[in-house]
Amino acid sequence: MGMESSMRDLKAVVRTIPDYPKPGIMFRDITTLLGDARSFRRAVDELVHPYAGGKADKVAGIEARGFILGGAVAHQLSAGFVPIRKKGKLPHTTVRVSYLLEYGEDEVEMHADALVEGERVILVDDLIATGGTAGAAVKLLRQLGAEIVAACFVIDLPELGGADKLRADGVEVRTLISFEGH
Ligand code: AMP
After folding, report:
1. pTM passes above 0.90
2. pLDDT of residue 130
3. Which of 133, 140, 157 is the best mutation target for the ligand 1 pocket, counting ligand atoms within 8 Å of the beta carbon and taking the most?
């Protein structure tokens, strides 16, 4: 199967839930993709394929859906896995970055010893929208001296500009499928 029809199939297994978690949001639910064996494998294979052959030391996944995809990606690349979590969940000494949400702000954390300077890291999450979350994750990784190989997402919402923002910040961004709107 060609790349285009294969990605069309992937898009077809993402479930869209209008007005969740609040009016006006089209929630792109990947549980239907994860639950389909061929789609899950295809998504992971496509995310990793440019980075096979020892190009990364670690994969950093963003809580919570980035853990599922990032764990599979790390396994496939024979890389270590590092969790990036919402504040207060990691037990050891952490580094922390806060970022703005539509209303208010939030914080993400990593263990301070999760990486050593110069390690090559791939960042993984299910979806990039405004790029606020991934941008904070990039800051955290750079604080610890990581070399960011790429940031990978199954879904892009290009109208929200997050992928372009990350690219402008010098990060290679890989996404598999995109949806119009928010
Ligand atoms: P952002 O920080 O705006 O790029 O938002 C990205 C984070 O929020 C990711 O962890 C996504 O899982 C989640 N997210 C944002 N918008 C949506 C959406 N429309 N459907 C599903 N998840 C979303």
Report:
1. yes
2. 95
3. 133
